[in-house]
User: Which sequence fits this backbone?
């Protein structure tokens, strides 16, 4: 069934011509996605967490049950807290908690595992500032959805406590691109291409093993991870990143929830000004995080 | 991690000795599960729907956005609205709608497709009484979780409109028992055995094809089905009934949500008097149904 709003999103992303270089592409993505209207009460403040630049996103309704670390997507090569302001403001409102959008280093200038090192350093800094792990949630989309789980694995390896929960939006969890949907849905995916994904993986890995758990968490052991929520569109090449990760989580005894939204394109959440499904999905993900940052809510359910 | 409450549930189910015949097993299940305390405000009234006996379950808080049809489990051989009163009362409260627990005919006296014929006849009667399909939700556990989807497929084949949503609790969606978890988790499943499941399948099918879509919806085409929620325990042999059905739903463009709850036994929801996770899971499932029986709630999310 054709969805004009989805077509508008795709057209918006493809607008702006062909920038001459990587920096041009990055700026264009920041301008197109970051140029959406956003809630009047949203505030964005630059901060540094463990040496890593970040942006603190708050809305007037925040009740501060904790904080949400947000890892943006963009194939490890693009994206920034600026591009994601419309998304992060709505997620902060849904979670009713401040959000910390982490501007980790990007590839190819900074290959694997630079991104994981940065998100882990920022997490460590938040813990050391006195916020207990039980009051910290992770969220991220696409490559940043991979970082949600990769950062948990890295933190586990470093002996750090687990955050309260993780929320992956169209998460990219397999840089080896082995999911059946990667080929089966290539023709129906509205946004992504196999060449595009493989190009990003190569630029980020630069020879590192694509099956390293921090690069492709779908191949990892999830033992000890906190509750996870994964959302993915039914026509995404990345569908089976989520279906496989859900099973991996289940077999490791991890509470996992997966939602498949029909016909939505990769990271539809990025377009709350166009797609009502973006707002609805962020509401569900934000509620999942909020209930786990505020255990009394879960007990009262 | 040992969970004493789960051990108590298993002991409760295995209490009562070895009845001499099938009717003895049925009565024992009704007595053990149906003997739990239940909410003071719950009311149970016998009714007939399309010639099928049923029980109408209401609680004082009901706002009546619609009705929920409930299909009990028990391998198509056991179970009744009586055994499920603790569960149905809590689900009615969570949905804030009256619940109609359908006492479909059981095997081996009434083989496949008697159960599907009965649930479909009851659904048709509710439609003919003037309740629109958009105000009807389906829910069911184990074999009844299979009936949630089988009844949708049967209704679709008969040209009836789809209900608003379906909620499967540890659904048994594959009578051919082909899920990987059926063997991989056989040793850790606290309640079920392969012989037990295969025995029930044989008693119900009596030679019919186990891969018939009404018997094993996991092999069906889900095109046109309404939003589905599936909940399953991480140590259940039936885990992959849900993981496969979630993928089948996704590829058919059906909105699907799957939740995996760590360490919970098959249909833990049946024990709200022992397991807090039963109440929490029914709250989540009830909320899913309620939001779809009351579209303005979803739009306001």
Assistant:
């Amino acid at each position: 069934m054709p969805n004009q709003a989805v077509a508008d999103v795709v057209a918006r992303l493809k607008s702006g011509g062909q920038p001459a270089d990587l920096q041009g592409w990055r700026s264009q993505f920041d301008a197109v996605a970051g140029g959406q209207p956003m809630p009047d009460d949203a505030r964005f403040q630059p901060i540094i967490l463990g040496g890593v630049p970040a942006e603190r996103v708050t809305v007037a309704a925040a009740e501060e049950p904790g904080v949400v670390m947000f890892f943006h997507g963009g194939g490890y090569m693009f994206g920034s807290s600026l591009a994601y302001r419309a998304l992060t403001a709505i997620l902060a409102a849904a979670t009713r908690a401040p959000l910390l959008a982490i501007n980790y280093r990007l590839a190819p200038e900074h290959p694997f595992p630079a991104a994981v090192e940065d998100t882990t350093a920022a997490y460590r800094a938040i813990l050391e500032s006195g916020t207990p792990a039980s009051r910290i949630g992770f969220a991220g989309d696409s490559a940043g959805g991979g970082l949600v789980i990769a950062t948990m694995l890295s933190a586990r390896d470093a002996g750090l406590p687990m955050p309260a929960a993780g929320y992956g939006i169209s998460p990219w969890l397999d840089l080896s691109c082995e999911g059946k949907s990667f080929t089966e849905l290539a023709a129906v995916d509205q946004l992504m291409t196999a060449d595009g994904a493989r190009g990003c993986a190569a630029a980020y890995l630069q020879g590192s093993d694509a099956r390293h758990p921090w690069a492709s968490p779908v191949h990892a052991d999830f033992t000890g991870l906190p509750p996870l929520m994964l959302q993915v569109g039914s026509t995404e090449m990345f569908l089976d990143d989520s279906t496989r990760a859900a099973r991996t989580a289940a077999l490791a005894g991890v509470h996992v929830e997966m939602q498949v939204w029909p016909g939505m394109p990769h990271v539809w959440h990025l377009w709350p000004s166009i797609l009502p499904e973006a707002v609805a999905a962020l509401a569900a993900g934000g509620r999942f995080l909020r209930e786990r940052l505020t255990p009394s809510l879960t007990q009262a359910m």
Notes: The radius of gyration of chain A is 17 Å. The CA atoms of residues 98 and 300 of chain A lie 23 Å apart.
